[in-house]
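[Q] Does anyone have a clean structure-token version of this?
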Amino acid sequence: MLKRHSEAFLLSVIGPCLVLCFLGHLTFVAYPLHKFDERTSTSVTLLIVVAALFSQAVSTLPETASPKAIDVWFFYFILRFFLFFVFHWLVDLQYRLVTDAERPHAIAARYDTLKGDNSDRSLEVRGSRKCPGAYEVA
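[A] Here you go.
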């Protein structure tokens, strides 16, 4: 009798995709927010590995006119890793906006320390807090 042997796909496709997905989720907790380069390089590397697995798996299957389940499987993981990359980019963008908004206070305090002005005057901040670029230190 004919029987499907699915163990090969479990070992060569499904298992590695699940491990790579776990590693992709680790990029959210393993690196601090200011380590954008490490987080994105890991995400892009995982995306490249999944694309290589897809290429290798599809090359061994017969061609069909309609999409196969393996195509949908890999499309899901490629899209997922791309969204990981986009999310890392958005987190870095927000992190930079927050740190740039705090920067004028730190620069002015350091300037006062270097200048030797040790008075306890507070910094006057003018502008809207909704727009980080609108801060001015007087």
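[Q] Thanks! Anything notable?
[A] The CA atoms of residues 124 and 138 lie 6 Å apart.
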